[in-house]
Amino acid sequence: MQLLDGKKVSDDIKNEITAEVQKMKEKGEKVPHLAAVIVGNDGASLTYVGSKVKACERVGFESTLVKMPSTTSETELLKKIQQLNEDDTIDGFIVQLPLPDQIDTQKVLMAIDPRKDVDGFHPENFGKMALDMSTFIPATPFGILELLERYGVETKGKHTVVIGRSHIVGRPMSILMGRKGFPGNSTVTLTHSYTKNIAQITTQADIIITALGVPNYLKAEMVKDDAVVIDVGITRVNDDSEKGYRITGDVDFEFVSKKASFITPVPGGVGPMTIAMLLKNTLLAREQKLLKN
Predict the structure, then answer these.
(1) Residues in domain Tetrahydrofolate dehydrogenase/cyclohydrolase catalytic (predicted)?
(2) Which is catalytic among the residues 5, 91, 117, 119?
């Protein structure tokens, strides 16, 4: 069994981006600038956005954090997005999800300029991805592809089973793993809460990508020997530690890891890759802007 070490690979990617930024500085070019909008005080979202800002500092990007109260109206948020769309100093920005109930998430994602949509959630970018066109790939799926590529995990002709059909992970992964090229060229089964006999399907899988958010859902008996297991699940489970909780994935790691050929740990697997690929998308946005000017 080999660990797909997202922490190590994300550090490698950040080092590569730092070198690119250094070259930009030497040429006297403006460095990439990423903005993040957060509405409300959700603890996990604040932590996540904070780590994005730190990552920007590390690679030499400029960053802007826009904090808005949980009482913010949809109109106010859309106005802020319009300002960011029109601000030429900002290359890419994200709106941290989830948003408060009074705001229509889909309307917000639609309002983001596709050229600055470094999360890859705008329908224009999602459509381009589905058509194998050059675009921003959502950061978590992009990170999974990068892990598979850097560890040389064979995907061609393999049976990939994706558990979960969210627009953020499950659905894009099902498209990407079936695309022409590497990683890709696999036969994909997309499973979800209405799929019957999931264990029967997963035991036939060469590659399992699970993004359910159900702790320890994938058991050893659901996985065949030498399968590749990618765990996207992140759930806080209460325990007696100092923090009062631990982070747990969808995979029963202790037992599944004994059967898998490659497996991602939680934490330290897909999570760090998401932020690294967000930085990579921001660098791409900056480069595309330079090409158009």
Answers:
(1) 4-119
(2) 119
Q: Phi-psi category of 256—alpha, beta or left, where left has phi over 0 and alpha has psi -120 to 50?
A: alpha
Same domain, 144 and 208: yes
Write the pLDDT tens digit of every residue in 229-266: 999 998 888 888 888 888 899 999 999 999 999 999 99
Q: Which of 5, 14, 80, 96 is catalytic?
A: 96
Q: In the numeric block, which tokens belong to residue 286? A: 């900056």
Q: Is 96 an active-site residue?
A: yes
Q: Which residues are annotated as a binding site?
A: 164-166, 234
Q: Would you say residue 105 lies in a domain?
A: yes
Closest CA to 250 of 203, 208, 215, 200: 215
Are 189 and 264 found together in one domain? yes
Beta strand residue intervals within the chain, DSSP E: 2-3, 33-39, 62-68, 92-95, 159-163, 187-191, 207-210, 228-231, 235-238, 245-248, 262-263
CA distances from 293 to 29, 113, 281 (A): 13, 17, 19
Number of domains in the chain: 2
- Please give the pLDDT value at position 237: 87
Report the CATH number at residue 252: 3.40.50.720
The pLDDT, as a whole number, for residue 292 is 75
Task: Show binding-site residues for NADP(+).
Answer: 164-166, 234
Alpha helix positions (H), 104-260:
105-111, 123-130, 139-150, 170-176, 198-202, 253-256
Between helix 139-150 and helix 270-292 the angle, nearest 10°, is: 100
- Expressed as residue numbers, the domain containing 92 is 29-113
Does the annotation count 206 as an active-site position?
A: no
Does the annotation count 288 as an active-site position?
A: no
